[in-house]
Amino acid sequence: MELQNLEMLRLFVGEQVRYGHRPLYEEVVREARLFGLAGATVLKGVLSFGHDMQFNTSKIMDLGTNLPMVIEIVDSAEKIDGFLPIVEQLVRDASGRAMLTREQVRVGIME
After folding, report:
1. Local structure of residue 75 (DSSP, 8 states)
2. At the topology level of CATH, where does 4-106 sit?
3. What value does the mean pLDDT take over residues 66-71?
4. Contact present, 34 and 97 (Cβ < 8 Å)
């Protein structure tokens, strides 16, 4: 298996942040696909805290929480660079807040 040097963009958004009638995380993935990025995955956090220091949890007694949704997108640095302004605009239009990380990754496809 040959490994490629790519980048991963990871976005953390609240599951209740909306872009129009859809969750923001769904809109980011939709835009990533339209932009032609290699792939995107959304993961749901079960426990978190952030800038407000409030715990968010998936425990049954806390159903009204705003759990973190983690969007991972992998592609070339150039493609990620081109996609970042779209992400910034989506977050701004959603009046939301997002944290992002970006890192180099080595990617291999196994079949």
Report:
1. E
2. Alpha-Beta Plaits (3.30.70)
3. 88
4. no
